[in-house]
Amino acid sequence: MSEEKDKPVIEIMLASDRIDPLIEIHEFTDPILTPGETVEYLEGYMTGHGTFPDDEEIKASVGGVVEKVNQLVSVRAMNSRYIGEIGEVVVGRVTGLQSQKWVVDTNSILESALHLTSVNLPGGEQRRRSVQDEEMMREFLKEGDLISAEIHQISTEGSLTLHTRSLKYGKLGQGILLTVPPSLIRRSKSHFCNLACGAQVILGCNGYVWVSAIDENKSGGFIQNMEVVKLSDRETITRLNNVIKALAESKVMLFDTSIQYAYEESLKYSTYDLLKPESKLDLVLCTAQKLQTLGLAD
Q: Where do the S1 motif domain residues begin and end (predicted)?
């Protein structure tokens, strides 16, 4: 009997029985416009990215959500490559090394660059970079390493130049990397979210989200903590991974409060059950309702 209890249970669900969470939560989220749909009347407004004038109306040229800044109306595409702005926080993966710089994938149209002069040397030493530093670049960061950084410059072609001079930036250790549409990341003062559950979430504006345990001894730069992560921390990280994926699938904006509320709602389910459509729908609905009640929903 004990052997039968230990056997894994396989649940089968027909495609016709699956739930589309987007249909259920539309009343709690901004409407998603389709190309050619009317955004606003032209009088009193200016057309921005993703829009075009048509007679007396402003219409969407891409599928996405409306953004208004004073009289400027634009439509932010839901699924597109990241177009960065100076000062934004990004998470990236090192893909190569060139002369005095690392090539970094930041989900943007072109490859990004992190120059040797734009990083903190080990120990925070302040001096000119030498030939020896250039020879040791692969010891600092190598292909496959994940980093958090800030956009320092944007070229006329659209390629990004990064820097990690602040101690909060640098090589990332052990955790989970998620990819979500960049349009779902809400811009805020801080994209480094230390949650009450004991985990840290770095919300890269480029759509790369890093989930890890909070490292109290993190000093930035190239020091990577490779200690064994506690089982409780691994369970928390895995739960957050499922929670963020559920929010992203339903097009709910990602920021510290929405993730914290969703995590609290998820505690009534096991980590495995969070993969089920019904559980994800309930999680997202409860989170969206709470955000709307507090006036935090978009």
A: 87-165
Contact 192, 230 (CB under 8 A): no
Write out pLDDT tens, residues 212-245: 998 776 656 666 667 788 999 999 999 999 999 9
SS3 state at 234: helix
Give φ, ψ of 66 to 5 degrees: -80, 140
Residue 98 domain flag: no
Half-sphere exposure of 124 (CA within 13 A, CB side): 6
Cα angle: 140, vertex 228, 212; to 5 degrees: 70
157 three-class SS = coil
Distance CA 184, CA 148 (A): 18
Q: Which amino acid is at 27?
A: E
* DSSP assigned state of 79: S
The DSSP call for residue 130 is -
Handedness of CA 77, 82, 85, 91 (dihedral sign): positive
- Tell me the pLDDT tens digit for each residue of 136-188: 888 889 999 999 999 999 998 889 999 998 888 999 989 999 999 998 898 88
Is 224 within the bounds of a domain? Answer: no
Find the domain containing 41 and state its range: 33-77
* Residues 6+ away with beta carbon under 8 Å from 293: none
Helix (H, G, I), strand (E, B) or coil at 286: helix
d(CA 33, CA 66): 8
- What CATH number is given to the structural domain containing 54? 2.40.50.100
Considering only CA atoms, which of 238, 69, 86 is closest in space to residue 162?
86
Q: What are the strands, taking DSSP E only, across 89-237? A: 89-98, 101-105, 112-119, 146-154, 160-164, 170-171, 175-179, 192-194, 199-203, 208-213
> Does some domain include residue 137?
no
pTM, 2 dp? 0.81
Helix (H, G, I), strand (E, B) or coil at 244: helix
